[in-house]
Amino acid sequence: MQRPLFIPKKCAADFLLLVIHVMGFPQLKRIMKLNPTLKISLVLFLLAVAVILVFQNREVVTTRFLFATISMPRAMLLTLVFSMGVLFGSLLTLLLIRQKKKTAV
Questions:
Q1: pTM of the model
Q2: Rounded to whole angstroms, how far apart are CA atoms 37 and 32?
Q3: Helices (runs of H) and strands (runs of E) counted in the chain
């Protein structure tokens, strides 16, 4: 039996719960577990915000970092920077949780 490659509602909802957990909103996490309609509404709202962000930031910008110069649409740059922030924040949270568990043992 093959596993499905893409489950949009489940993946988006799980990602949203992860972002809420990393950002430190435990009350909202509990509410979303109780109300699936709120979960879907938040996912749709965030998707709409992302679409608006892309359409309002289509112009190409040039970014210089050290010796490299990169030209890309502003929406792509914002998405890249946001993704890096989420990734580094998640990794830092995981490291702190791991370190806290080691010191507790």
A1: 0.54
A2: 8
A3: 4, 2
